[in-house]
Specification:
Elements: H1 3-8, E1 23-25, H2 36-57, E2 62-67, H3 74-88, E3 92-97, H4 102-115, H5 127-144, E4 153-157, H6 165-170, E5 174-179, H7 188-201, E6 206-209, E7 223-225, H8 242-252, E8 265-267, E9 273-275, E10 281-283, E11 295-299, H9 308-321, E12 328-334, H10 345-357, H11 361-364, E13 367-372, H12 377-390, E14 393-396, H13 405-412, E15 417-420, E16 436-438, H14 444-456, H15 458-475, H16 478-494
Parallel strand pairs: 2-3, 2-4, 4-5, 5-6, 6-7, 11-12, 11-14, 12-13, 14-15, 15-16
Antiparallel strand pairs: 1-3, 8-9, 10-13
Helix pairs in contact: 2-16, 4-5, 4-7, 8-12, 9-10, 9-14, 13-15
C-alpha cells in the first residue's frame, strides 16, 4: 500500500485482514441519441452541451460510483443506467459494489431507518457499531485505494459507503456523497444517524439529497438537491403490448393460464429478444386472477417502511366494506434472499404472510403475495413492467420514502397512482392532477377510499395517468439527471483544495 493509503487508515480499527473486497460491475456504454426523440430540440442541444463539457473536464480521470448491492432497489437500478449514458458520452464512469457482513448490514439498515426518523429494530448506534462499520469499510477501502487515482471523482451512495470518504479524500480524490433517503422532520433518531455519520460527512466536498428538507445543518453550505430519475428506455419501462404483458404474468403465475395468448417476450437492453422463463413464488388461496380482474398492485422491497402490511390491511378493509367491488391485490417484491444489503426482507415478508393467514377465507382468495425472481435482472424488470402496466391501480403506501421510483415508473406507464404524501412522493404527485395522495400514511380508511375512487371512476383514472406520463417526461428522465450530474462534477472541481489541478486529473509536483 502506498504511503498515502497508509495515512488514510491512521486510527482506523484493525482486526480484519482484507477478506472483504469490492467488485466492479461492468457497465456497457449507451449512446445518448435515444434521447433526441423525447426531449425536443432545445433539450437535445442542452444535453449535448452538458456531454461536451463533462467529457472535456473528465479527460484522463474516472468518475467512480460506489454502493453496496448490484441488484434490488432503485439505487442499484439507477446507477448503471446513468453510468451507461455517461460512458456513451465519453466519460470513464465505473461502478464498484462493496462487500459487507450480516452484522454490518444490520447496522446500516438501522442507520437507514434512523435517517427516516424511525427506530427500526431499536438496536444501538454506539461505539461497538461504529467500530464494526469502520472495520468493514477499511477492508473494502484497501482495494478501492489501489484503483482510485488523485483527481478522480467518487460518488458514494447511502449510509453504507459514507465511511470511505476520509480515506478517498486523503489520496486526492474529489468525494461526494449521495443520500437517497431522508426525513422532512427532525427527531432524536435523525440526530442519532447524523452523529454516527459525522466523520464521513466531514470529508466530502458535496452532499447530494433528493429534497431540500433532508439536508442536515452541518452540510447546508455544501449540499445539492438532485431528484432521482428513471430510464424510460430500460427494460422495466420499455413499451409493452397488453397481450404480451398478460402472457408474461400468466407464465409467472400472477394471472390465470387463460391470459397467455402470446410469447412472454421482451427486448433486452442490448436489443436481443428474450422470453420470461422463471415463475414467481406466490402465496395465495385458490386460483390466479383472471385477465379481466382489476388488480391493485404494489411492487416494492420487503421493507417495513414500504408498509406492505398496511397495504394488505387497507385492501382488506376495502373488500370488507364493498364486497361487490371486483378487484384483487397483488403485493409483490423481490425474492428475499436476493438483496444483499437488506437483512429485514425475510422477517418483513413473514409478518405479512402471518397477517394474510389471519384473514377470512374469502379475503385471502383476493390477495396474492409474490416474490419475483431475481436471477436475471432484466427478466425481473420485464415482469415488473408487465405487472405495473396491467394494474388497474398502482399503490405506494410508504410510511417514509426518500423518493419513490416505483411511483415514477407507474406514472410513466400512465397508471393511476395512490401513494402516501411522504418524502419525495410529494415532489412527484399533485393530488387530483396526476395521481391521488393519502395525507395520513397510517390511515387505512383514507387509503381504501382513494383506491376505490380510482377503481370506480375509470375516466378520472385515465386522465390522471395521461398527465402523469407527461410530468415524468418533463421532470424525471435521465436527460435531466445527466445535466444535474454534469453540474455536480463541475462543483466538485470548483471545491477542490488548493494545489489540486482537477482539469488534468493529477496533483502537481511539489
Amino acid at each position: 500500500m502506498s504511503g498515502e493509503g497508509a495515512r488514510a487508515f491512521a486510527g482506523w480499527p484493525q482486526g480484519m485482514t482484507g477478506t472483504l473486497k469490492p467488485f466492479e460491475v461492468h457497465v456497457r456504454a449507451e449512446p445518448l441519441t435515444c434521447f433526441e426523440s423525447v426531449v425536443g430540440q432545445e433539450g437535445w442541444r442542452a444535453l449535448m452541451a452538458h456531454a461536451e463539457r463533462t467529457r472535456t473536464r473528465m479527460a484522463g480521470r474516472t468518475f467512480w460510483n460506489v454502493n453496496t448491492t448490484a441488484r434490488g432497489g432503485g439505487v442499484a437500478e439507477m446507477i448503471p443506467r446513468l453510468l451507461a449514458y455517461a460512458r456513451g458520452a465519453g466519460v470513464d464512469a465505473r461502478w464498484m459494489v462493496l462487500e459487507g457482513t450480516p452484522e454490518f448490514f444490520r447496522v446500516t439498515k438501522r442507520l437507514h431507518h434512523a435517517l427516516h426518523g424511525s427506530p427500526g429494530d431499536g438496536s444501538p448506534l454506539g461505539l461497538a457499531e461504529r467500530a464494526l462499520y469502520d472495520e468493514v469499510l477499511r477492508d473494502n477501502a484497501e482495494e478501492l485505494l489501489a484503483l482510485v487515482r488523485p483527481g478522480d471523482l467518487v460518488l458514494l451512495h447511502d449510509p453504507q459507503t459514507l465511511g470511505l470518504a476520509p480515506a478517498l479524500a486523503e489520496v486526492g480524490a474529489g468525494v461526494a456523497w449521495r443520500c437517497h433517503v431522508g426525513s422532512d422532520l427532525r427527531n432524536a433518531e435523525v440526530a442519532r444517524a447524523w452523529e454516527f455519520l459525522a466523520p464521513g460527512l466531514a470529508a466530502v466536498r458535496l452532499a447530494v439529497f433528493s429534497r431540500a428538507s433532508y439536508v442536515p445543518p452541518q452540510c447546508a453550505d455544501r449540499a445539492l438537491v438532485i431528484r432521482p430519475s428513471i430510464d424510460v428506455f430500460a427494460v422495466k419501462n420499455q413499451s409493452m403490448a397488453p397481450d404480451v404483458a398478460c402472457s408474461i404474468l400468466a407464465h409467472t403465475g400472477l394471472l390465470g393460464d387463460g391470459a397467455c395468448v402470446m410469447e412472454p417476450a421482451f427486448i433486452r437492453g442490448d436489443g436481443v429478444p428474450a422470453r420470461v422463463s422463471r415463475g414467481a413464488d406466490i402465496i395465495r388461496l385458490g386460483s390466479a386472477p383472471a385477465r379481466d380482474t382489476p388488480l391493485v398492485v404494489q411492487v416494492s422491497r420487503w421493507d417495513p417502511l414500504k408498509d406492505p402490511a398496511g397495504v394488505l390491511n387497507g385492501f382488506a378493509l376495502l373488500a370488507r366494506e364493498h364486497p361487490g367491488l371486483r378487484a384483487e391485490l397483488v403485493l409483490a417484491g423481490p425474492a428475499v434472499t436476493s438483496v444483499a444489503d437488506d437483512p429485514e426482507a425475510a422477517s418483513t415478508l413473514n409478518a405479512v404472510v402471518e397477517r394474510w393467514r389471519g384473514l377470512p377465507h374469502l379475503l385471502r382468495q383476493r390477495i396474492h403475495l409474490a416474490c419475483l425472481p431475481m436471477k436475471d435482472a432484466e427478466e425481473n424488470a420485464a415482469i415488473v413492467n408487465a405487472l405495473q402496466r396491467h394494474a388497474a391501480v398502482v399503490v405506494q403506501k410508504s410510511l417514509q420514502e426518500g423518493f419513490g421510483l416505483t411511483v415514477t415508473e407507474a406514472m410513466w406507464k400512465e397508471r393511476p397512482v395512490v401513494a402516501s404524501a411522504v418524502g419525495g412522493i410529494q415532489d412527484q404527485i399533485v393530488h387530483g392532477v396526476n395521481g391521488l395522495l393519502v395525507r395520513d400514511a397510517s390511515d387505512l380508511a383514507e387509503f381504501a377510499a382513494e383506491v376505490r375512487t380510482l377503481l370506480c371512476d375509470r375516466e378520472l383514472a385515465a386522465r390522471l395517468g395521461t398527465r402523469a406520463r407527461q410530468d415524468v417526461l418533463d421532470h424525471f428522465t435521465g436527460a435531466r439527471h445527466l445535466g444535474d450530474i454534469s453540474f455536480l462534477i463541475e462543483q466538485l472541481d470548483a471545491r477542490a483544495p488548493v494545489g489540486v489541478a482537477p482539469e488534468h486529473g493529477a496533483l502537481p509536483p511539489p
